[in-house]
Design brief:
By secondary structure, the protein is α+β, with helices and mostly antiparallel strands. It is built from eight helices and eleven strands. The strands form two sheets. An eight-stranded mixed β-sheet has the order 4-11-5-10-9-8-7-6, with helices on both faces. The protein has a three-stranded antiparallel β-sheet with strand order 1-2-3, with helices on one face. Helix 4 runs antiparallel to helix 7. The longest helix is centred in the C-terminal third of the chain and has 15 residues.
């Protein structure tokens, strides 16, 4: 397993989905935003913490979340440091859940596995209201979550591409591409429920792959939960292969 590559992809993904508050503890990032997004409300522990005592580092991380009335949470992958971190969290009563696959392939290969649509595909470097409305409604976000999601999508540091396919004058499918250091990250690919199974999401991914190649991205990565069988089947048909998995460890997990 290529741990340096995994650590880099984890860093790129973290840069594409930024929290409202981020406190660094050596190589750990303590992230908090509020809402239900796990990525921006968890510790990114893929570098060594600042303190020699791992138990003191864990206490500082837990206090960071408890001060905000949020359960302490870690996002864990094979690059997490120290290597015994999952065992230490289990001993402290953490629950592991939300297994997620990170899949990759060459960008040129994704382009060859997808095709352009006859429908109009449009893109913008900035978030648009129409893109946001379709993404949040098709994803099932609750009204109180919308300001939090909008904040995440407007904090992206690297080059971004908000892409949508139009049908009858309105967005029918959307996707987000983020390019950094030769990699294209694909996020937020959704289709309006009445218009699914028409190849619209595939056309959006084709447009993102084309843009990624223009930006010098030779590889593409995406994240998909293990229980999302329709998405797993789609990405398999498009040539993606799993590189690694990550999951979350949360203390005093509430039912969501």
């Amino acid at each position: 397993m290529d741990i340096p590559q995994i650590r880099m992809i984890e860093e790129l993904a973290a840069n594409a989905w930024r929290p409202k508050i981020e406190q660094h503890l050596g190589g750990w990032r303590l992230r908090y935003t509020g809402g239900k997004s796990r990525r921006v409300n968890s510790v990114w522990p893929n570098g060594l913490p600042a303190l020699n005592s791992i138990h003191k580092s864990l206490e500082i991380a837990e206090e960071f979340y408890l001060r905000r009335s949020s359960p302490p949470c870690f996002q864990l992958c094979p690059a997490a440091l120290p290597a015994e971190l999952p065992q230490l969290l289990a001993e402290r009563g953490y629950t592991f859940y939300a297994q997620t696959a990170v899949q990759v392939q060459p960008t040129a290969q994704l382009l060859s596995h997808t095709s352009q649509s006859e429908a109009r595909v449009t893109a913008s470097p900035d978030l648009t209201d129409d893109w946001f409305e379709l993404y949040t409604s098709a994803s099932g976000y609750e009204p109180e979550s919308l300001p939090i999601v909008r904040g995440i999508l407007t904090r992206i540091g690297p080059a971004a591409r908000f892409t949508w396919l139009e049908w009858d004058g309105k967005p029918a499918a959307v996707g987000l591409g983020v390019v950094e250091r030769g990699w294209l990250g694909v996020f937020c690919v959704v289709t309006s429920p009445p218009l699914r199974r028409k190849g619209f999401s595939t056309a959006v991914m084709h447009a993102l792959a084309q843009w990624g190649l223009e930006q010098g991205a030779g590889g593409v990565y995406l994240q998909v939960m293990d229980d999302n069988l329709p998405a797993l089947n789609l990405y398999s048909r498009l040539g993606f292969a799993q590189l690694y998995q990550y999951y979350y460890a949360v203390k005093d997990k509430q039912d969501e």
